[in-house]
Design a protein that fits this description.
150 residues, alpha+beta, DNA Primase, Chain A, 5 strands
Length: 150
């Protein structure tokens, strides 16, 4: 049998905690110049392979109650709507938008919104970031509160 086959069989027989225990046990037996050193080297490799198989076949976590899926928020968010929701008047500038910067006193539009990247940048005060950074900075709140608002 090959190490891959041995690893698959081991992964089928043991749970993840048991495999971690086996990995530790194999490491404890890796003492050079011992008669069974070669066996424990082989076994440690097989156990590491079994751990990889086991982890690869673990179900991916779905929504966890009380947790926010940041990637889902980032995917569905529209920075233009979020900025306009704060009463900031945006002017179309090609495929982007510009406005007076809400973060500093501005006489000509230096605040740009890049909808495709879902980012903003002010060329006056150098404020920069995504829509979460915008809400955090404008409302002076933390990351979790800003994500909840978006």
């Amino acid at each position: 049998m090959t190490d891959t086959t041995d690893s698959k069989q081991l992964a089928e027989r043991f749970s993840l905690p048991e495999l971690r225990h086996e990995e530790h046990a194999a490491a404890m037996h890796l003492i050079p110049d011992q008669d069974d050193y070669g066996y424990w080297c082989w076994y440690a490799d097989v156990v590491r392979g079994a751990l990889m198989f086991k982890r690869a076949n673990q179900p991916k976590p779905t929504a966890i109650p009380g947790h926010i899926n940041i990637e889902a928020v980032r995917e569905r968010a529209d920075i233009v709507s979020i900025v306009e929701g704060y009463g900031i008047r945006l002017l179309k500038s090609g495929k982007n938008f510009k406005a007076l910067c809400p973060f500093h006193s501005d006489k000509s539009p230096s605040f740009y919104i890049y909808p495709e990247e879902k980012r903003f940048h002010c060329y006056g005060c150098q404020a920069d970031g995504d829509f979460i950074d915008f809400v955090m900075k404008l409302d002076n709140i933390g990351f979790k509160e800003a994500v909840t608002k978006c």
